[in-house]
């Protein structure tokens, strides 16, 4: 019997039909939708008089356009309000479960689906959102799709796809104190570049990922897309089963045990081959920051910006107002954002609270903490983290995508730097003319306290 990878096992189990020398028809277990990419797809089906094939396999939430203050009031922004209204109407019309603004399960789609047990190992999961790869942390095949593909899944619960190639990135050893999952993925992307994963589905393997919490694994898989991969996966194990158990939509009792027995068959077979492999040493990784306008432009916090003679590199530095060879340590920062589908889970806020406890935010800093879901917001309050943040001068807002992509009121002003736990540092991503420095929640919290970028390792040791 041929040796198979985790990716092959899940993919092959979902192939319904194969076109000779062509694409395959892949069955989709879960279709997640939000207010941004679904309206056009709903309209297309309506115009063609095609019903939604399996509404029970679709889950909707409002996240991109949602305000993070006064969520009980009508949405002020007309465009955002309209998109949210359309989502509610479309879901009601088509019998689709929707966790709208204010619902106790509302939140960022890639945060609320795992915490509700909607996301499970061995599934195929799609969403009209590039960071769907987050769900691969559970050993599922999860990826973002375009509007026409959203319509395809609505109509048939299937997609016509060419099978990606297999990539494995292994990181072995023990991480240094202060190095978080966000640093691991920023390091990998900085080393491999933003197109190393193009055409591949990436499996993350090795001791570092085996020892990571589910929150950490989600952070890593979330950013697979930033190195060009179609998605990222981590094999399910005891950590996965324990996280999934007893969640709202997880099977219970004997049904759960039966699922686990299947999930145990999913990890990559010993001796299975990959089309491409990379490996890294955990000890080489340190807290990371980005200095440019793509997530691959990252350095260890203690390193200096490279000195390359390259037009696009120089254009990035000009936008960021940085110089070649410059150190970012002591760079003054006025905005800090802890949130987004990359780092808005309870673990991220525990890390931040642990650091800021008993300290004060710098006067020049606006520090926004935006939970990824209503459930995370409740945890922050119940665990007493809100009290710590309040005392330190941080502002805890309501759940949503917030300043990750500025499709709402949370925008970083032109020309300002923001140390952000989100996933993208593109030009204008957090607001027109804003400058984004990607970092871990720990580095972000330290920046807020100091009002500048600091060598966090020095403080911890």
UniProtKB/TrEMBL annotation:
<comment type="subunit">
    <text>Heterodimer of LeuC and LeuD.</text>
</comment>
<feature type="binding site">
    <location>
        <position position="404"/>
    </location>
    <ligand>
        <name>[4Fe-4S] cluster</name>
    </ligand>
</feature>
<keyword id="KW-0004">4Fe-4S</keyword>
<comment type="function">
    <text>Catalyzes the isomerization between 2-isopropylmalate and 3-isopropylmalate, via the formation of 2-isopropylmaleate.</text>
</comment>
<keyword id="KW-0456">Lyase</keyword>
<dbReference type="InterPro" id="IPR050067">
    <property type="entry name" value="IPM_dehydratase_rel_enz"/>
</dbReference>
<keyword id="KW-0100">Branched-chain amino acid biosynthesis</keyword>
<protein>
    <recommendedName>
        <fullName>3-isopropylmalate dehydratase large subunit</fullName>
        <ecNumber>4.2.1.33</ecNumber>
    </recommendedName>
</protein>
<keyword id="KW-0479">Metal-binding</keyword>
<dbReference type="InterPro" id="IPR004430">
    <property type="entry name" value="3-IsopropMal_deHydase_lsu"/>
</dbReference>
<dbReference type="InterPro" id="IPR015931">
    <property type="entry name" value="Acnase/IPM_dHydase_lsu_aba_1/3"/>
</dbReference>
<dbReference type="InterPro" id="IPR036008">
    <property type="entry name" value="Aconitase_4Fe-4S_dom"/>
</dbReference>
<feature type="binding site">
    <location>
        <position position="401"/>
    </location>
    <ligand>
        <name>[4Fe-4S] cluster</name>
    </ligand>
</feature>
<dbReference type="InterPro" id="IPR033941">
    <property type="entry name" value="IPMI_cat"/>
</dbReference>
<keyword id="KW-0411">Iron-sulfur</keyword>
<keyword id="KW-0432">Leucine biosynthesis</keyword>
<feature type="domain" description="Aconitase/3-isopropylmalate dehydratase large subunit alpha/beta/alpha">
    <location>
        <begin position="8"/>
        <end position="451"/>
    </location>
</feature>
<feature type="binding site">
    <location>
        <position position="341"/>
    </location>
    <ligand>
        <name>[4Fe-4S] cluster</name>
    </ligand>
</feature>
<comment type="pathway">
    <text>Amino-acid biosynthesis; L-leucine biosynthesis; L-leucine from 3-methyl-2-oxobutanoate: step 2/4.</text>
</comment>
<keyword id="KW-0408">Iron</keyword>
<dbReference type="GO" id="GO:0003861">
    <property type="term" value="F:3-isopropylmalate dehydratase activity"/>
</dbReference>
<dbReference type="GO" id="GO:0046872">
    <property type="term" value="F:metal ion binding"/>
</dbReference>
<dbReference type="InterPro" id="IPR018136">
    <property type="entry name" value="Aconitase_4Fe-4S_BS"/>
</dbReference>
<dbReference type="Pfam" id="PF00330">
    <property type="entry name" value="Aconitase"/>
</dbReference>
<keyword id="KW-0028">Amino-acid biosynthesis</keyword>
<dbReference type="InterPro" id="IPR001030">
    <property type="entry name" value="Acoase/IPM_deHydtase_lsu_aba"/>
</dbReference>
<dbReference type="GO" id="GO:0009098">
    <property type="term" value="P:L-leucine biosynthetic process"/>
</dbReference>
<comment type="similarity">
    <text>Belongs to the aconitase/IPM isomerase family. LeuC type 1 subfamily.</text>
</comment>
<dbReference type="GO" id="GO:0051539">
    <property type="term" value="F:4 iron, 4 sulfur cluster binding"/>
</dbReference>
């Amino acid at each position: 019997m041929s040796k198979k990878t985790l990716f092959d096992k899940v993919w092959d189990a979902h192939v319904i039909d194969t076109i000779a020398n062509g694409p395959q028809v892949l069955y989709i277990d879960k279709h997640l939708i939000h207010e941004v990419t679904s309206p056009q797809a709903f309209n297309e089906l309506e115009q063609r008089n095609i019903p939604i094939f399996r509404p029970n396999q679709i889950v909707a939430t409002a996240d991109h356009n949602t305000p993070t203050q006064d969520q009980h009031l009508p949405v002020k922004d007309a465009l955002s309000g309209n998109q949210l209204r359309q989502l509610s109407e479309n879901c009601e019309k088509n019998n689709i479960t929707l966790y709208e603004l204010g619902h106790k399960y509302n939140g960022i789609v890639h945060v609320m689906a795992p915490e509700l047990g909607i996301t499970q190992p061995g599934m195929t999961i799609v969403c009209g959102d590039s960071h769907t790869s987050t769900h691969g942390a559970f050993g599922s095949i999860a990826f973002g799709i375009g509007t026409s593909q959203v319509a395809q899944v609505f109509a048939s619960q299937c997609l016509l796809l060419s099978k990606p190639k297999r990539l494995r990135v292994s990181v072995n050893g023990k991480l240094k104190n202060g190095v978080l999952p966000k640093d691991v993925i920023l390091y990998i992307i900085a080393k491999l570049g933003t197109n190393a994963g193009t055409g591949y589905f990436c499996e993350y393997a090795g001791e570092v990922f085996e020892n990571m919490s589910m929150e950490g694994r989600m952070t890593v898989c979330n950013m697979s897309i930033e190195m060009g991969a179609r998605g990222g996966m981590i094999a399910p194990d005891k950590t996965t089963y324990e996280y999934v158990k007893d969640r709202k939509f997880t099977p219970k009792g004997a049904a759960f045990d039966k699922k686990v027995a299947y999930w145990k068959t999913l990890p990559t077979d010993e001796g299975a081959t990959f089309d491409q492999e990379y490996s890294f040493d955990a000890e080489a990784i340190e807290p990371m920051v980005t200095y440019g306008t793509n997530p691959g432009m990252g350095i260890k916090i203690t390193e200096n910006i490279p000195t390359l003679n390259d037009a696009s590199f120089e254009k990035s530095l000009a936008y960021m107002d940085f110089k070649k060879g410059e150190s970012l340590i002591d760079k003054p920062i006025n905005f800090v954002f802890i949130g987004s589908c990359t780092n808005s889970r309870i673990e991220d806020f525990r890390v931040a609270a642990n650091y800021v406890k008993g300290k004060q935010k710098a006067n020049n800093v606006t520090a926004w903490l935006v939970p990824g879901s209503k459930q995370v917001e409740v945890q922050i309050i119940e665990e007493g983290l809100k009290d710590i943040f309040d005392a330190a001068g941080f502002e805890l807002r309501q759940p949503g995508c917030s300043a990750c992509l500025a499709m709402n009121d949370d925008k970083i002003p032109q020309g300002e730097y923001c140390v952000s736990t989100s996933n993208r540092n593109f030009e204008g991503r957090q607001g027109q003319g804003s400058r984004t420095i990607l970092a871990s929640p720990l580095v972000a919290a330290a920046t807020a306290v100091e009002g500048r970028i600091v060598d966090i390792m020095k403080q911890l040791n």
